[in-house]
Amino acid sequence: MASLGPNIDELMQALRCLPGVGPKSAQRMTFQLLERNRDGAERLMLSLQAALQNVRHCQRCRILSETELCSRCSDPDRRQDQLCIVEMPSDVLAIEQATAYQGQYFVLNGHLSPLDGIGPETLGIPTLIRWLDSQETEEIILATNPTVEGEATAHYISELARARQIRVTRLAHGIPLGGELEYVDSTTLSHAFAGRGTV
Amino acid sequence: MASLGPNIDELMQALRCLPGVGPKSAQRMTFQLLERNRDGAERLMLSLQAALQNVRHCQRCRILSETELCSRCSDPDRRQDQLCIVEMPSDVLAIEQATAYQGQYFVLNGHLSPLDGIGPETLGIPTLIRWLDSQETEEIILATNPTVEGEATAHYISELARARQIRVTRLAHGIPLGGELEYVDSTTLSHAFAGRGTV
């Protein structure tokens, strides 16, 4: 492929580290940034610089944070005895937005996946164990994804909790609201059928 | 929506200047960059910085270039009397890749669009006129897009060329190779039918 210059090529390559960006999109983005939106390119450059410098993880719940403790962990009004465990920071945002949950979070930043070398250490399980041993926790809400790896991670953590007599709950499975029975996959439907409740 | 901090929010906003990136993708990209690929984020930041500093336009053909004249304009082996006029730098790359064309290019960096305030000045038409007046040109190949604006731009330039007795050609319209008649839109089909040739 014809090249326009090393800096332009390098920018196209660098953009491909973004999720969902292949060679064609990277080229389109490069031209957009350099041809039509240099202000946007500069803003992106500066914000990357600032974020790389200032964003680290909350020392308590491991979410991305710009302060040592994130805003939720340092909020004295939140319940201290409920702990919701999620895989990703985006899950925290989704739960905060959708529910009235007012307890604590712990972000694994992944799920158990021994084949990829992701074990309990990587997920911060030692930190979680210290948390459970040092602080009264009444309920652990396991909000990992309903995938094979997410379920395995949830099972692993529920064993830790049970050894400490902590009540463990899991998000309910069933038919999504607004969904149509006909289009729900059979595993979900069988879960929903088995878990039917009286009205 | 819950916020993780001003630097993280600013990065999410800044990513939205990329074409095709909405709020959800920007959030996904931000987490990917800060959580899993800080090296990629740093590389992107540095390459943006380098490109913003070093990339300008070729003074002759107006394509993005890191030198005063781009590699094509400074290549003495290319034909000087053929001039292909395109809308975008990516069109030059596409033609270079697909054809054996060995002439000159001129990049408009857009098309005539009076409602958006894009007139001949913005498209570098004065530069083009100086080119046509100062240098022998035998053929102008109009390779603007087959859209209403692209056709209008092509018409405008063909008038300039005709006033200077320069031969003007336009890329052929017709059925794309590998396409099926049934799925070709009716305008293209009628063009292809009217422009049929003897075999």
UniProtKB/TrEMBL annotation, chains A, B:
Return the SUPFAM superfamilies for the record.
Recombination protein RecR
UniProt entry keywords in alphabetical sequence: DNA damage, DNA recombination, DNA repair, Metal-binding, Zinc, Zinc-finger
- On the tree of life, the source organism's domain of life is Bacteria
UniProt xrefs under PROSITE patterns: TOPRIM
CDD domains, alphabetized: TOPRIM_recR
Pfam families of this UniProt entry? RecR_C, RecR_HhH, RecR_ZnF, Toprim_4
User: Is Zinc-finger set as a keyword in this record?
Assistant: yes
Q: Name one GO biological process term.
A: DNA repair
User: Which residue range or ranges hold the Toprim domain?
Assistant: 81-176
GO MF terms held by the record: DNA binding; zinc ion binding
Recorded hits in InterPro entries, A to Z, give: DNA_Rcmb_RecR, Rcmb_RecR, Rcmb_RecR_Znf, TOPRIM_dom, TOPRIM_RecR
Q: Where are the zinc fingers (C4-type)?
A: 58-73
HAMAP family, per database record: RecR (MF_00017)
Question: Which NCBIfam families does the record associate with it?
Answer: recR (TIGR00615)
Described by its record, this protein's role is as follows: May play a role in DNA repair. It seems to be involved in an RecBC-independent recombinational process of DNA repair. It may act with RecF and RecO.
Protein family (similarity comment): Belongs to the RecR family.
Q: What is this protein called?
A: Recombination protein RecR
**From what organism does this protein derive?**
Methylophaga frappieri (strain ATCC BAA-2434 / DSM 25690 / JAM7)
